[in-house]
């Protein structure tokens, strides 16, 4: 199982790299899973960290300690919006509370990869200038 999670982490990060194609100036990515300390998320963390290191990108990894703490997760996400992250990888604990926040982030041109949820916004390609 850990190998599959690490492979998934690498694939997830590859999808993030595709999303930031027009934002190459970024050096850091924020990742917010549903919770921390579980084997699924820790293996995913390792896969993302390995892929990020190979791309010379830094990751910020944080999540609520307990699953189901969607208010805490959205507070973390909102607090990161003023930082200079080039994008986000988010696995929202609750779809409706995350939808507006994700759409607002995308409207500012910041890429967001949503994991294990269907928030509804269609993927957009950024225009290259």
UniProtKB/TrEMBL annotation:
Matches recorded under InterPro entries: Peripla_BP_I
Q: Which SUPFAM superfamilies match?
A: Periplasmic binding protein-like I
| Protein name as it appears in the record | Periplasmic binding protein domain-containing protein
